[in-house]
Specification:
With about 170 residues, this protein is an alpha/beta fold. It contains 6 helices and 7 strands. The chain is about 30% helix and about 20% strand. The mean pLDDT is about 95.
Length: about 170
């Protein structure tokens, strides 16, 4: 066995990526504070070929040096939009027939491994900031609240790690 060289991977160009069919998933970042995390989310969104990222509130937007450091050029391929508020973004997405799934620890949340995503449904996955998570009013406005099971001593995961785990689940539903 040998590692493949970059030219053997058969990756799409930026133009090919923009024109290809995407997975019917949108990522919504609710006031994510770290531009490095935003860049990592762009890179993960590129890997999973998702439709779009909404950068809400104080979430940093491209072009940004710290985003570029971790995004590795994916900001050129993945479509994104800034929204002043997360609520406005999810209302817009609901009007476009997306079901909103907030990734958060809540009293009535469904464990990610138990959540049965409808393969014919478009989803918008909302991820919160590093200190407070998804805002309470956004959790209440969501159609679903999904929680990633955790078994250690810490109560949360890095937002970019959460995005990767959730996208894997939703893509492979």
């Amino acid at each position: 066995m040998r590692k493949l060289k970059l030219d053997e991977l058969g990756r799409a160009s930026v133009d090919e990526f923009r024109n290809m069919r995407k997975n019917p998933i949108v990522i919504v970042l609710d006031n994510v504070r770290s531009a490095h995390n935003v860049g990592s989310v762009f890179r993960t969104a590129d890997a999973f070929a998702i439709e779009k990222i909404y950068l809400c509130g104080i979430t940093a937007t491209p072009p940004h040096r710290e985003i570029n450091k971790t995004a590795l050029g994916s900001t050129e391929a993945v479509e994104w939009e800034h929204a002043d508020s997360t609520e406005a973004a999810i209302r817009k997405l609901q009007a476009l027939n997306y079901e909103i799934a907030a990734l958060e620890q809540a009293d009535l949340s469904v464990s990610l491994d138990q959540f049965e995503a409808n393969p014919n449904q478009k989803y918008a996955l909302v991820f919160g900031n590093e200190v407070y998570g998804v805002e309470d009013h956004v959790v209440k406005a969501a159609d679903h609240v999904v929680e990633i099971p955790q078994y250690g001593t810490k109560h949360s995961l890095n937002v970019s790690v959460s995005v990767g785990i959730a996208l894997w689940h939703f893509i492979h539903r």
